[in-house]
Amino acid sequence: NAGVTQTPKFRVLKTGQSMTLLCAQDMNHEYMYWYRQDPGMGLRLIHYSVGEGTTAKGEVPDGYNVSRLKKQNFLLGLESAAPSQTSVYFCASSPLAGSYNEQFFGPGTRLTVL
Amino acid sequence: GQQVMQIPQYQHVQEGEDFTTYCNSSTTLSNIQWYKQRPGGHPVFLIQLVKSGEVKKQKRLTFQFGEAKKNSSLHITATQTTDVGTYFCAGLPYGGATNKLIFGTGTLLAVQP
Questions:
Q1: Distance CA B14, CA B76 (A)
Q2: What confidence tier does A101 reach under pLDDT thresholds 50, 70, 90?
Q3: Which of A12, A90, A94, B105 has the fewest C-beta atoms under 10 angstroms from its C-beta?
């Protein structure tokens, strides 16, 4: 099993450009998440999904959109990139909620917006 | 909003010394998880604590969950160079959305051989 994979690994955008980050998991997990990680600020939740066809806002959703058309994929879109969106983006997934809800993280995408 | 703070932000130790990081939440938590992120890597789950006052051990690592379920700590005994990385706590607020963790700010541990 590959676990959680993310593409691309690196990307440089110009202000105003758009892009989509792809996250895929092969563990049949219900829950998927997108985080951004900035120095000194830990991991902040952008959007998450509790199942195929559902999405919800996290802590810092502005400027991002997401879609979960298939259970195994969770896409993060930036419609008009801004320098403030320069960050490392992590996707994660977890099994159906219970008392044990460990999150499995992908390797990350390093995005720079010029 | 709900916050989870960690102290210290950075700790530099000599190999063999002990290390402790503390995690404090502004709200009561259902459970707390700890993750480790190696430099250039991604967070990896270490452990979850659920019960008030719970203590769990993994070899040289000891995790505690406070009685009020608002704070937690991770203690590493006799650090090794393999312990280098950032340690994050992540809490699930009591009564909050299922699986919507709030991550702490992290503690970066540097170990000098």
A1: 13
A2: confident
A3: A12
Cα–Cα distance between B24 and B3 in angstroms, integer? 8
Instruction: Quote the radius of gyration of chain A (alpha carbons, Å).
Output: 13
CB B105 within 8 A of CB A41: yes
Three-state DSSP at A85 gives helix
Q: What is the Cα–Cα distance from B47 to B64, expressed in whole angstroms?
A: 11
B42 with A105: Cβ contact below 8 A: yes
CA dihedral B88, B93, B96, B100 (to 10 degrees): 10
Closest-CA distance, B32 to chain A, in angstroms, reads 10
Q: Using CA atoms, how far apart are residues A114 and A81, in angstroms rounded to an integer? A: 9
Task: Judge contact between A43 and A32, C-beta under 8 A.
Answer: no
DSSP A2-49: --EEEE-SEEEE-TT--EEEEEEESS--SEEEEEEE-TTS-EEEEEEE
Q: Name chain B contacts of A48, Cβ cutoff 8 Å.
A: 99-100
Residues from chain B contacting residue A97 (CB–CB below 8 Å) = 98-99
The answer to whether B48 contacts A48, with C-beta atoms less than 8 Å apart, is no
Q: Do B33 and A40 touch (CB under 8 A)?
A: no
Is the CB of B99 less than 8 angstroms away from the CB of A59?
no
